[in-house]
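Appendix C: a fully annotated inverse folding record. The material below is reproduced so that readers can follow the format used throughout the book. The structure is listed first as tokens, followed by the designed sequence.
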């Protein structure tokens, strides 16, 4: 365990007899690891000997995001507040520590911080500063606790993490879990926009094929004989099923239904309204 020289302030300035328990990885063995690296999730983890670990995570989404979680071996016993500071190490004389945020301590939950604070902590680590979390120990009222993220050996893994984040898919599972695909007239050919939607689903399935169930509902407009339209709706659904199995989804987890010209969502009295009825609805569900 590496001891830090810190100033007494606010949350920490209680009894002069209070002890400070400090947790941080030693400089010589400080380890950062790209714990998860895919187009769905990027996670950068840091081990805190005797305490737990700290993890920064970003997920595939339409919006760039970042979360910080402090994984504690001993979860909080009561509610409280921790102070988060950026503390320069001892070999940066003249640099002042500064407060970054407060972190809510919740009973029996790990600590976490929102996106803006998480990004700030990463930038402080990149500068060589140590983000440090201070709080009153919930198991020993005579003790204060300081948990520091050691910036040693951070930079190279952080660059790998940044590269991973930049390659995340620009949409999440929720964005593709319910998709309506449209078709050209009297055809199993998708419109250009729907082809791109299907490709998005395919890109996701390359990363995650662990789906519990895929429901594919094929539909047709009322142009032509009803029996023919029902078969066309089934062919449309089967084409999508074949695409998913090629992406690695097990065939027995895919359920298709052809509704023909039933279940219209628009009248069939204009070319525009008939186009709305030529569709396949794809519903994905995960455990």
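Designed amino acids, in order:
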């Amino acid at each position: 365990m590496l001891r830090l020289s810190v100033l007494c302030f606010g949350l920490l300035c209680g009894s002069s007899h209070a002890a400070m328990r400090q947790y941080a990885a030693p400089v010589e063995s400080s380890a950062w690891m790209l714990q998860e690296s895919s187009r769905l999730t990027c996670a950068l983890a840091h081990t805190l000997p005797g305490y737990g670990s700290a993890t920064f995570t970003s997920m595939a989404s339409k919006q760039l995001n970042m979360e910080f979680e402090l994984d504690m071996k001993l979860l909080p016993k009561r509610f409280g507040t921790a102070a988060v500071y950026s503390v320069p190490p001892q070999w940066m004389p003249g640099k002042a520590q500064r407060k970054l945020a407060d972190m809510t301590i919740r009973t029996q939950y790990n600590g976490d911080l929102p996106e803006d604070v998480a990004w700030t902590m990463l930038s402080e680590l990149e500068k060589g500063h140590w983000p440090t979390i201070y709080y009153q120990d919930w198991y020993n009222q005579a003790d204060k606790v300081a948990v520091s993220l050691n910036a040693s050996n951070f930079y190279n893994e952080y660059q790998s993490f940044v590269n991973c984040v930049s390659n995340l898919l620009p949409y999440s599972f929720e964005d593709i879990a319910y998709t309506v695909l449209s078709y050209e007239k009297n055809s199993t050919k998708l419109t250009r926009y729907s082809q791109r939607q299907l490709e998005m689903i395919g890109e996701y399935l390359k990363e995650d094929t662990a789906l519990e169930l895929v429901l594919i509902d094929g539909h047709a407009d009322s142009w032509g004989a009803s029996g023919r339209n029902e078969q066309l709706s089934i062919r449309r659904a089967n084409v999508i099923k074949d695409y998913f199995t090629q992406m690695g989804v097990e065939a027995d987890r895919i359920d298709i239904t052809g509704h023909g010209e039933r279940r219209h969502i628009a009248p069939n009295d204009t070319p525009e309204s008939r186009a709305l009825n030529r569709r396949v609805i794809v519903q994905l569900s995960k455990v």
